[in-house]
Design goal:
It holds the Pfam family DUF1349. InterPro entries: ConA-like_dom_sf, DUF1349. The protein is mostly beta strands. The protein has one domain (2-98). Helices cover 0% and strands 36% of the residues. It contains no helices and ten strands. It has strands at 2-5, 17-19, 24-27, 31-35, 42-43, 52-53, 57-59, 73-76, 88-92, 95-98. A four-stranded antiparallel β-sheet has the order 3-4-1-8, with no helix packed on it. A two-stranded antiparallel ribbon has the order 2-7. It is globular. The model is unreliable at 1-9 (pLDDT under 50).
Length: 99
Amino acid sequence: MQEIVLFSALLSEMTFTWYNKPKNWSVNQTTINVHTDKNTDFWRKTHYGFERDSGHFYYHSLPGDQSFTVTVNVRGKYNTLYDQGGLMLRTDENNWIKC
């Protein structure tokens, strides 16, 4: 499970959308709780040759070429090898970064 805490009041006014919506999740003004589904991930062109675009991504689109600043605090209960959660910037399935 990953828990993401949102500190900005502006975020409560923004509309977010799921890409690969998980079965179990909740959100309020300060917290997103996500229980990830099994076998979900984001990987591109790995050394081993596999690619994945099945991970959960809760996002807000920004039109055009905009600069922005974001601060996040991620606390997770990572129980299994490769469990992770964090921040992702994404243009499409071939152009993204996660940290």
